[in-house]
């Protein structure tokens, strides 16, 4: 059974960078037809797609976050990562790492989510 | 930027049919997927490619699309179906979510 697990600091200072890693277990991050994505949910709000990466590093970013966003992949560790710079309180959210199945065009596996709070 | 619109809330009596709509410009040439999220839990994919139900999802869940509106239908709604539901579609290279619909079973 595929599992995804987010890890990273739960508290980040304003203006600093937020970094999270997703570890994929029970399967390889390599093969098509899967892409890997980050999705966030601000407290009491809806879901927001952040960005997606293929195993060979091809990325798609949310245009509203693109200037601050880097998503990378490390196939040797079966991980992919998120870095969001210059964070503000508006970036406080639960961050989910997700598998995008391009055959069914749906996010079919989700991590449990990790809350990141931006506060001084 | 591309937008998907959902009603904020839908109410249904147990055993009745719930319809949750998702509308967006040119949605008729995109695929919509649907996610169910219960409080404190991660979302779960309940419908993909407009009308493809993943394995493990009860048959009372179905999907359709007509023009620029995709619809998630829950037939014989049960109390366990009470949750937030989100649609998602891809516009070029961006994955856009609707604002979500809170389904209340009362």
Helix vs. strand class of chain B: mainly beta
How large is the share of residues in beta strands of chain B?
over 45%
Number of helices of chain A: 0
What is the residue-averaged pLDDT of chain B? 94
Return the string of H and E elements of chain A.
Answer: EEEEEEEEEEE
Oligomeric description of these chains: heterodimer
User: What is the N-to-C succession of helices and strands of chain B?
Assistant: EEEEEEEEE
Give the C-alpha Rg of chain B.
Answer: 13 Å
Categorize the overall geometry of chain A: globular
Biggest interface, chains and residues, is:
A-B, 23 and 25 residues
Cα end-to-end separation of chain A: 39 Å
Helical content of chain B stands at under 10%
Helix content of chain A: under 10%
Instruction: Quote the average pLDDT of chain A.
Output: 95
Shape of chain B: globular
User: Major sheet of chain A, described briefly?
Assistant: 7 strands, mixed
Number of strands of chain B: 9
Please give the largest β-sheet of chain B: 6 strands, mixed
Low-confidence stretches of chain B: none
- Uncertain ranges of chain A: none
Structural class of chain A: mainly beta
What would you note in describing this structure?
The complex is a heterodimer of chains A (120) and B (106). By secondary structure, chain A is an all-beta fold. Chain A has strands at residues 3-7, 11-12, 18-25, 34-41, 47-53, 59-61, 69-74, 79-84, 93-101, 106-110, 114-118. In chain A, strands 2, 4, 5, 6, 9, 10 and 11 form a seven-stranded mixed β-sheet that branches. In chain A, strands 1-3-8-7 form a four-stranded antiparallel β-sheet, with no helix packed on it. Chain A is globular. Chain B has 106 residues and is mainly beta. Chain B is 0% helix and 47% strand. Chain B has strands at 9-12, 18-23, 32-37, 44-47, 61-66, 69-74, 83-91, 94-97, 101-105. Chain B is globular, with a radius of gyration of 13 Å. The chains are: A mainly beta (120), B mainly beta (106). The A-B interface holds A 37, 39, 46-49, 52, 60, 62-64, 96, 100-101, 104-108, 110-113 and B 1, 31, 33, 35, 37, 42-45, 47-49, 52, 54, 86, 88, 90, 93-100.
């Amino acid at each position: 059974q595929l599992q995804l697990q987010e890890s990273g600091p739960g508290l980040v200072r304003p203006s600093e960078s937020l970094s999270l890693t997703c570890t994929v277990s029970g399967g390889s991050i390599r093969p098509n037809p899967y892409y890997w994505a980050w999705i966030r949910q601000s407290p009491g709000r809806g879901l927001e797609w952040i960005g997606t990466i293929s195993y060979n590093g091809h990325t798609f970013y949310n245009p509203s976050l693109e200037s601050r966003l880097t998503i990378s992949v490390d196939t040797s560790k079966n991980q992919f990562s998120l870095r969001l710079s210059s964070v503000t309180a508006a970036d406080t959210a639960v961050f989910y790492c997700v598998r995008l199945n391009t055959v069914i065009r749906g996010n079919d596996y989700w991590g449990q989510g990790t809350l990141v709070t931006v506060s001084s | 930027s591309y937008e998907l619109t959902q009603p904020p809330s839908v109410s249904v009596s147990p055993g009745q049919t719930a319809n949750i709509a998702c509308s967006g410009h040119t949605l008729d040439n995109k695929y919509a997927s649907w996610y169910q999220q219960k409080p404190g839990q991660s979302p779960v994919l309940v419908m993909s490619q407009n009308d493809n139900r993943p394995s493990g999802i009860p048959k009372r869940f179905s999907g359709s699309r007509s023009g620029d509106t995709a619809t998630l239908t829950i037939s014989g709604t049960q109390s366990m179906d009470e949750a937030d539901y989100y649609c998602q579609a891809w516009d070029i290279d961006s994955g856009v979510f609707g604002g979500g619909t809170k389904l209340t079973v009362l």
